[in-house]
Design goal:
The chain is mainly α and 486 residues long. It has 17 helices and no strands. It binds a DNA duplex (14 and 14 nucleotides) through helix 11. It is found in: Nucleus.
Length: 486
DNA sequence: AATAATGATTATGG
DNA sequence: CCATAATCATTATT
């Protein structure tokens, strides 16, 4: 990329300057040496004209030098090499060279950079750690993009989560690949450049004193420069990863509403466990599974346990916060599950005769599919009768019968079939409906709106008080039906 | 376009 | 670690 171009340019310009420098040095050295009669077998053109005693001669001399300088670039490389060789072979050269080395050593110019290297640059370390944590710099895992693509393709109906995840991973591997190729390129360029410089220095060390330390220092400088560039790369990679992360993993950006069926199921559970809407881990798993398979074949998003947890968390808090807003919904689901309960209870009663106490679930299990359909209309009629049928408010003399009949049915099932805990939820639901409507019936002012059993005054669901004892909720409303059992 | 609904996250406390 | 409450950011609805 741009960087390598830059490097190439640097290299070129550096070599150019060094070559030029070498040639200039040679020529000038030649001239000056010639001027001071230290000249050996050099192929320099002898300064013509008289020895500059007067201005004219000096001018001539200077002009000559200038001419040489100006024509340096016209000299062929071979010519220059030849001159260089000549200079190197000069008999005085070793002596002069050692003198120069000594002088340089004394001036201490060569050793002046023995300070750095130790601080590992905390920022760079931070970047490295981040890249490592993000899986960009670490060991190649999963075979890179191919694996990600395969996962995306093969997932099929597996999970929408995995699709997004693999998408994310594909992008991540892309970033990782870019990062690695760039890094490698930098490394290579750095090495190339280093060897180039070292060669140059070695070459020059024949003409001017260059200590190994100096070379080392040079290499250190180069490496620092390159590592700073690498840090830039790492930084931008980190940035890219962070952007990708926020784009893909922050699920809030890709929120998808649950399907109708899923919310149905969740609501059903919620309202039928209103006294203690805290599904256990298993219950959550089951709910998640059920929600996921309702739309199974489609691309319907699968719902995870944590999503169920989220849902219940949100539901609880929102329900509690504004119970009035959820009344309608509560009634709806309560009635619905009540109908289910009635059907199930009937089935249970039927079954209880033939079946031993085995699997009390079986009676209820079927409600999923069989009742779902046929309860649709009965539910609707029930609802319209119950709540919307009469005048706007819920004073309903006839619906009381409805509840009572249902309640008695339920009671039957409870006693006859011994369905235990499972029935409990249905009872819960029924109680909800009953107490609800009763509360309205009593017209005890708006604030007495049916506080759900278990939702105490402080606003917390107190411990599942599973009122297995009887159906009467708390107070007055319960009395309406408590004695009408026959 | 304004607003409500809603799934997810964050902060806090037990 | 889980529940709650507040909040965020997206999606649905008006």
């Amino acid at each position: 990329m741009s960087f390598s171009i830059c490097v190439a340019q640097c290299t070129d310009s550096l070599s150019a300057t060094m070559d030029d420098q070498a040639r200039i040095m040679q020529s000038i050295g030649g001239v000056s040496l010639a001027g001071h009669s230290v000249q050996g077998g050099m192929a320099l053109p002898p300064p013509h004209g008289h020895d500059g005693t007067d201005g004219d001669g000096r001018k001539q001399d200077i002009g000559d030098i200038l001419h040489q300088i100006m024509t340096i670039t016209d000299q062929s490389l071979d010519e220059a090499q030849a001159k260089k060789h000549g200079l190197n072979c000069h008999r005085m050269k070793p002596a002069l060279f050692s003198v120069l080395c000594e002088i340089k050593e004394k001036t201490g110019l060569s050793i002046r950079g023995a300070q750095e290297e130790d601080p590992p640059d905390p920022q760079l370390m931070r970047l490295d750690n981040m890249l490592l944590a993000e899986g960009v710099a670490g060991p190649e895992k999963g075979g890179g993009s191919a694996a990600a693509a395969a996962a995306a393709a093969a997932s099929g109906g597996a999970a929408d989560n995995s699709i997004e995840h693999s998408d994310y991973r594909a992008k991540l591997t892309q970033i990782r690949q870019i990062y690695h190729t760039e890094l490698e390129k930098y490394e290579q360029a750095c090495n190339e450049f280093t060897t180039h410089v070292m060669n140059l220095l070695r070459e020059q060390s024949r003409t001017r004193p260059i200590s190994p330390k100096e070379i080392e220092r040079m290499v250190g400088i180069i490496h620092r420069k390159f590592s700073s560039i690498q840090m830039q790369l790492k930084q931008s990679t980190c940035e890219a990863v962070m952007i990708l992360r926020s784009r893909f993993l922050d699920a809030r950006r890709k929120r998808r509403n649950f399907s109708k069926q899923a919310t149905e199921i969740l609501n059903e559970y919620f309202y039928s466990h209103l006294s203690n809407p805290y599904p256990s881990e298993e219950a959550k798993e089951e709910l998640a599974k059920k929600c996921s398979i309702t739309v199974s074949q489609g691309v319907g998003s699968t719902i995870t346990v944590s999503q169920v947890s989220n849902w219940f968390g949100n539901k609880r808090i929102r329900y509690k916060k504004n119970i009035g807003k959820f009344q309608e919904e509560a009634n709806l689901y309560a009635a619905k599950t009540a109908v289910n309960a009635a059907h199930a209870a009937a089935a249970a009663v039927q079954n209880s005769q033939a079946n031993s106490p085995t699997t009390p679930n079986s009676g209820f299990q079927m409600k999923d599919e069989e009742f779902q359909l046929d309860s649709a209309e009965s539910k609707n009629t029930l609802l319209s009768n119950m709540f919307t049928g009469s005048s706007g408010s819920f004073n309903l003399p006839n619906s009381g019968d409805m509840f009572l009949s249902m309640q008695s049915l339920n009671g039957d099932s409870y006693q006859g079939a011994q369905v235990g805990a499972n029935v409990q939820s249905q009872v819960d639901t029924l109680r909800h409906v009953i107490s609800q409507t009763a509360g309205y019936n009593d017209a005890l002012g708006g604030n007495t709106m049916y506080s759900p059993h278990g939702l105490n005054a402080n606003g917390g669901w107190q411990d599942a008080t599973t009122p297995s004892s009887v159906i009467s909720p708390t107070e007055g409303p319960g009395s309406v039906h408590s004695d009408t059992s026959n």
